[in-house]
């Protein structure tokens, strides 16, 4: 684990802010599609540092050993970019409903948080197919935007991102924006898409929507190994809450997919 120091804070939309960080070890990290890392946000008056170990089992045991009143809040994020030792992460702002959003709303250059990962052990390559489909909500936008930047110009793709309203749109070429303010929802819009025989699908965002879309594509005959999926958040629950039966089922599916 290492510490990160905020070097810049830039509002992107009313509900999203971009931050850059520097920190030990960033220059040695490689890059790959859809990099995931864990960020640790200190409780008031406490440190974000837990353990210097890069072994996930050792580090996580050390994390759990920290008394709950002192333990940093941990959340998973997607790397927006990592260039020349500078890490960029986009944060969705949704009030004081969670420690990450609360911290991001008031973050300033010089603030310090913790980092574990990203680990190449969890790297997954982009799929190969005639058509690539990307779908998610604003929490998945950083991942989708970074993935689209990797595509060759000849690759056919469809990208769908659900956001609150048009003010939340960003300059990401090729995205079909889904606006909740207009009564649209991601599942309905994406489910109406005609799917060819050769397709690879990437899904991210609210867990129940991700599960619904995954079931939809499997029902259309898309192989499970050709669907990459992650439930970033759960409606009415946080990452600190116990996993539901659906969460556990999703975890088993992801483990099975990684072993294929």
Descriptors for this entry?
23% helix; globular; five-stranded parallel beta sheet; Elongation Factor Tu (Ef-tu), domain 3; 260 residues; 12 strands; Rossmann fold; seven-stranded antiparallel beta sheet; alpha/beta; 6 helices
Please summarize what this structure is.
The chain has 260 residues and is an alpha/beta fold. It is 23% helix and 31% strand.
What features would you describe in this structure?
This protein has 260 residues and is of the alpha/beta class. The chain folds into 2 domains: 2-118, Translation factors (Elongation Factor Tu (Ef-tu), domain 3, Beta Barrel), CATH 2.40.30; 124-259, Rossmann fold (3-Layer(aba) Sandwich), CATH 3.40.50.80. Helices cover 23% and strands 31% of the residues. The protein contains 6 helices and 12 strands. The protein has helices at 56-65, 99-106, 141-148, 186-191, 207-219, 245-259, and strands at 2-13, 16-22, 36-41, 73-78, 81-83, 86-92, 112-116, 131-137, 156-163, 175-179, 199-206, 227-233. It is globular and about 50 Å long.
Q: Which residues sit in consecutive blocks of at least 5 with pLDDT less than 50?
A: none
How would you sum up the major sheet? 7 strands, antiparallel
- How many angstroms separate the termini? 29 Å
Global morphology: globular
* Broad CATH class of the largest domain: Alpha Beta
State the helical fraction: 10-25%
What would you say the CATH architecture of the largest domain is?
Answer: 3-Layer(aba) Sandwich
- C-alpha-based Rg, rounded: 18 Å
Tally of extended strands? 12
Q: Could you tell me the mean pLDDT?
A: 90
Hey, roughly how much beta strand do the residues contain? Answer: 25-35%
Spatial strand arrangement across the major sheet = 4-3-7-1-2-6-5
- Per DSSP, the total helix count is 6
Class by alpha and beta content: alpha/beta
Estimate nothing, just give the exact number of structural domains. 2
Considering the protein shown, what is the CATH homologous superfamily of the largest domain?
A: Nucleotide-binding domain of ferredoxin-NADP reductase (FNR) module
Tell me the CATH topology of the largest domain: Rossmann fold
Compressed to H and E, one letter per element, the order equals: EEEHEEEHEEHEEHEHEH
């Amino acid at each position: 684990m290492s510490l990160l120091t905020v070097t810049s804070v830039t509002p992107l939309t009313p509900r999203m802010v971009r931050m850059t960080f520097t920190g030990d070890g960033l220059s040695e990290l490689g890059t790959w599609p859809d990099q995931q890392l864990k960020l640790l946000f200190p409780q008031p008056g406490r440190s974000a540092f837990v353990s210097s170990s890069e072994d996930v089992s050792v580090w996580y045991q050390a994390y759990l050993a920290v008394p709950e009143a002192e333990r940093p809040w941990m959340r998973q994020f997607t790397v927006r970019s990592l260039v020349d030792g500078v890490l960029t992460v986009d944060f969705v702002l949704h009030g004081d409903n969670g420690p990450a959003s609360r911290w991001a709303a008031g973050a300033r250059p010089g603030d310090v948080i913790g980092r574990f990962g990203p680990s190449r052990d969890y790297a997954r390559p982009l799929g190969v197919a005639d058509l690539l489909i990307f779908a998610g909500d604003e929490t998945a936008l950083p991942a989708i935007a970074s993935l689209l930047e990797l595509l060759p110009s000849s690759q056919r793709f469809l990208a769908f991102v659900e956001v609150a309203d048009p003010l939340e749109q960003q300059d990401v070429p090729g995205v079909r924006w889904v606006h909740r303010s207009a009564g649209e929802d991601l599942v309905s819009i994406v489910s109406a898409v005609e799917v060819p025989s050769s397709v690879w699908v990437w899904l991210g965002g609210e867990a129940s929507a991700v599960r619904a879309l995954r079931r939809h594509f499997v029902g259309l005959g898309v192989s499970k190994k050709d669907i990459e999926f992650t439930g970033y958040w759960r409606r009415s629950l946080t990452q600190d809450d116990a996993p539901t039966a659906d969460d556990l089922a999703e975890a088993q599916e992801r483990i099975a997919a990684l072993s294929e």
